[in-house]
Amino acid sequence: MSSITVGKVLNNNVIIAEHPQYAEVVVIGKGIGFNRKTRDRINLSSVEKMFILRSQEEQEQYKQLVPQVDEKLIEVVQEIVLHIMQSSRQTLNEHIHIALTDHISFAIRRSEQHMAIHNPFLYETREIYPEEYSLAEYAVERINEAMKVTLPPDEIGFVALHIVSALSNRHISEVKQHSELIGDMVGLVEDSLEYRIPRDSLDYSRLVTHLRFVLERLRRGETVRETSSLDGLMKREYPEMYMLAWKLTKVIEQRVRIPVYPAEVSYLTIHLQRIAQKKEDEPELEE
């Protein structure tokens, strides 16, 4: 029967081992590393949780990280990762094992020291990535339960971005940049209109979703068909919103360093005009 060979014991519950098919693997299990020595053999049938870190760099980072964090957290994060894979039916970038463990460990320390960190892009993250946000809600709830802590709701947004990063194979910094950019553009719209868009409104959801798709189209290099008649109509009928849309596309170009197709201005104008109309329709409060 196949077996794995212990390469390095990281703690009582985590070892690095040589697998007959996958080379070096990380094995997690209650007491799997207790009293184990290098070159010990373990029957594969007794292994419950295992994952592969193909990158040598990832392996080294994980080996350094594990001794610094609570053993229970390693097990819970692995449970969360398996839940994400089963729910999304997708493979995850292996870096999530390191990134999520490191992030949650730091978040728990902050919570214990009463150092709250506000997430200014929580609403945007929930709107842009609803499925990943739902998975993050499960993750934070499971961590709170297993680690006997109370992580704030802001952490759900941060964890969601790590999940997006792992599912899309994009670096967390790029995912975070898009979320922050959308938040900044919403702020720019609100400043220009002198109107706060209700976060639970359909207008807010439509605007954020549209901005997300603009960024996704740019990332994938998709072209947007020119509609000169629509462009002329928007410019003529809604000049203020057209100029605001043009300003937003310039912000996008500066931040992501990719030219935005002019047609995007027309489509964005439609969303902005809807919001501007909503502001006009609202009754003014008497002082």
TrEMBL record:
Q: Quote any Pfam family the record assigns.
A: CAT_RBD
The record's annotation in InterPro entries points to: BglG_antiterminators (IPR050661), CAT_RNA-bd_dom (IPR004341), CAT_RNA-bd_dom_sf (IPR036650), PRD (IPR011608), PRD_sf (IPR036634)
Q: Does the keyword rRNA-binding apply?
A: no
What are the record keywords, sorted?
Repeat
> PRD domain: which residues?
68-173, 174-282
Q: Which SMART domains match?
A: CAT_RBD
> What PANTHER family does UniProt report for this protein, alphabetically?
CRYPTIC BETA-GLUCOSIDE BGL OPERON ANTITERMINATOR, PROTEIN GLCT
Q: Which NCBIfam families match?
A: antiterm_GlcT (NF047357)
Q: What is this protein called?
A: Transcriptional antiterminator
Q: What is the protein's species of origin?
A: Paenibacillus silagei
